[in-house]
Amino acid sequence: MKFKFKLESYLNVKKQTEENIKNKLGKEMLIAVKEENVLNTLQNETEELCKDIKRISSEGITVAELNIYNTYMDFVVNKVKAQKEIVKKQWEYVDEIRCELNKVLQERKILEKYREKKFYEFLQMQLKEESKLTDQLVSYKHAVGISEDNGTD
To answer: Which of 1, 84, 93, 144 is the most exposed place for a label (fewest CB within 10 A)?
Structure first.
């Protein structure tokens, strides 16, 4: 008799779901890292712009040129703020996916433990059946042996 787990197809669906979520998690983590790189680039641009403004100011600059630099600096600072928000939301999304993955992992592990328990019960039943057959065989051989002994007297 072959072991058949009634929830095997459900377990397979859980395994497939787990793989899909792992792939999604990896993809979203890459997006988060790319967004962080964009943020770092913007922050570096802000630092360079500050240095440029200080350097140019010390060399002499018109008020109109300084206003242009300050306007651009405000623009870059606003981009940095917006990018920080994007990065924050992306990492929050990654955390949500991670939680979803943990939930599916727990469900799969519960199913696998249940499967192991059922398999152990199946093995125990097989051993009992085997033992019963052995007992019947021994009883039969013993009964046949007795009747042969009775017939030869």
So the answer is: 1
